[in-house]
Amino acid sequence: PEIWNQTDGKVDAVVFATGTGGTLAGVGSFLKGKNDRIKVILADPQGSVLYKWFTQGKLERSDGSSYTEGIGQGRLTNNLKDSPVDQALLVKDVDALKATFQLLHEEGLFVGLSSGLNVVGAVQAAKILGPGHTIVTALCDVGQRSYNRIWSRAFLEEKGLLEAVPEEYHHTLH
Asked: Using an 8 Å Cβ cutoff, are 151 and 173 in contact?
């Protein structure tokens, strides 16, 4: 109800990554009950099976793997089986990582990679839907939890992800 109430019912799409799929399915079902034209969009990290499930009907992993934690599945959960997903978007870790650092440095929000992935998904949805639409997502994790991973220069170098972090933000790595 919060999204519906806070937008005065003027929401065109919701975009979420999923763990168990409860948030996406629950929010999507509620909003579709209010207005069936609202788009429910899955933002899925590379290496998860959900993108291919919702776009091709195949329970196969997309190419690559992800360093996101708690999202991106290797299975279809019961929450997602009958969920009202209209579209799925594939989000690369490099894009989610860049967005995560931008959220800190440009918005003052210290979030984790899952939040960065949600924001990238929302931006992709905005490009698809075009100007004048209200798109909602969630900042679902905090940066402190992933401090030893995505905020670590050594980790990013080891995983080949350092170049995804804009150079002007490298001073915040440890």
From this structure: yes
Cβ-proximal residues to 162 (8 Å cutoff; 6+ apart), any chain: 153, 156, 170
- Report pTM: 0.93
The answer to whether the Cα torsion of 25, 27, 31, 33 is positive or negative is positive
Instruction: Give the distance, in angstroms, between the CA of residue 30 and the centroid of all CA atoms in the same chain.
Output: 20
The answer to whether 91 touches 44, Cβ cutoff 8 Å, is yes
Contact in structure between 152 and 139 (CB atoms under 8 Å) = no
The single-letter DSSP state of residue 114 is: H
Q: How far apart are CA 120 and CA 91, in angstroms?
A: 7
Residue whose tokens read 């929302």: 122
Please report, in angstroms and rounded to a whole number, the separation of the first and last CA atoms in the chain: 40
Model pLDDT for residues 7-52, shown as the tens digit of each residue: 999 999 999 999 889 999 999 999 999 999 999 999 999 888 999 9
Instruction: Give the 3-state secondary structure of 48-108.
Output: CCHHHHHHHCCCCCCCCCCCCCCCCCCCCCHHHHCCCCCEEEEECHHHHHHHHHHHHHHHC
**Inter-residue contact 14 to 3 (CB < 8 Å):** yes
